[in-house]
Amino acid sequence: MNDCPAVTDWRDGATIREVAQRYGTNYHVVRNTLLAHGVTAEEMAFRRGRSAWIRVRENHDALASDAWKRLEEGVAPVTLADLRGPRRNKALVAVRHRVWREMHARGVPVIAIGRFFRRDHSSVLYALGKVTAALLGGRS
Fold first, then answer.
1. Residue 90: which pLDDT band, with cuts at 50, 70 and 90?
2. Exposed, middle or buried by CB within 10 Å (0-12, 13-18, 19+), for 39?
3. Structural domains of the chain in order of their starting residue, each with its CATH number
4. Is residue 11 within 8 Å of residue 4, measured between CB atoms?
5. Mean pLDDT, residues 63-77
6. Which range scores top for mean pLDDT: 35-39, 50-54, 89-93, 123-127?
7. Nearest by Cα to 125 from 112, 136, 137
8. pTM attached to this predicted model
9. What's the CA gap between 134 and 96, in Å, rounded?
10. % residues pLDDT > 90 (the chain)
11. How would DSSP label each residue in 14-69?
12. Which tops the pLDDT comparison, 121 or 47?
């Protein structure tokens, strides 16, 4: 589908307000245009005034992949899509939690880890506590 100039400008990094000013219209017209051209509300919410989150999120794929690759040896084959997916079998969950711990140790905020893996931040906090307790207490 060919994008209109407003959508192209938004995809190139302009905010919705900047696009609206550029084309002499208002925020809601641009927002509805973006929706009509296949941009999801989640994408818009993510971009809206959160440029720092955009930079962080771009690094999450790399951080998660890096952590996952280091844990991959001796673990059943798991893809990053599996880690971000809804499945909850025991082996997959163990790897997912170890990746979360690795990302958190590198300074990624719990909320950002949750967003990247499509989980609530409280689930990430619980898992981090569980993994830490297992490492300190020797239990599984």
1. confident
2. middle
3. 5-47 (no CATH), 51-137 (1.10.1750.10)
4. no
5. 62
6. 123-127
7. 112
8. 0.51
9. 15
10. 8
11. --HHHHHHHTT--HHHHHHHHHHTT--HHHHHHHTT-HHHHHHHHHHHHHHHHHHH
12. 121
- Residue pointed to by tokens 């300074």: 107
| pLDDT score of 119 | 92
- Rounded to whole angstroms, how far apart are CA atoms 1 and 93? 38
Concatenated DSSP letters of 77-120: ---HHHHHSS---HHHHHHHHHHHHHHHHTT--HHHHHHHTT--
Q: Tokens for 74?
A: 């001796």
Which token pair is 112? 């950002």
Structure tokens at 29: 């017209």
CA atoms within 13 A on the CB side of 126: 7
The pair of structure tokens assigned to 73 is 């040896």
Tokens encoding 66: 């890096």
Residues in the chain: 140
